[in-house]
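hey so i finaly got around to running the thing on HTH CENPB-type domain-containing protein from Acanthosepion pharaonis. pasting the sequence first so u can double check i didnt mess up the copy paste, my clipboard has been acting weird all day
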Amino acid sequence: MSASASQRKTLSISEQLDLVVDVKMKKLKLAAAAKKYGIGYSTAAKILKKEGDLRLCMQVNGNTNRKRKRQSVHKDVNEALTQWFTQACPDGATVTDHVIRQKASQLAVNLEVDFEPSNEELMRWKQANNVSFKKFHGKSTSADHGSANEWVTNVLPQLFRLEL
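ok and heres what it spat out for the 3d tokens, dont ask me to read them lol
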């Protein structure tokens, strides 16, 4: 093996879409784009052919840092879980890792699939579907409006009187 042998390079979905934009919008030649991204001409041509799949993948889950779109062993359970999750979140339901794991077990039973979700599988599902749990402070859905109104009408005026 020679010293100048190059390593294989795998582009992320966002880099692949950048290549497509360079070729189609910026009118960069395919060979120049391949050289710019450090890949072969035939690889760049394949990326250009699968532009529709790349854009669809970006729209579906938005995780463009992934390099490959791997299919799960339990594809039907994952699809059902994703569908349930997208319906549960806009309704304001509190969804945690434990709830997702329970729902995955329930869906596996309903679909008659031998599947017991592990932490690893949950983590992979969350990464694949671009799911993260963060606490948002000041969310109006979790605010206690009655107590806040009571505090403004009763306690706040007393505090102003004490300062005078």
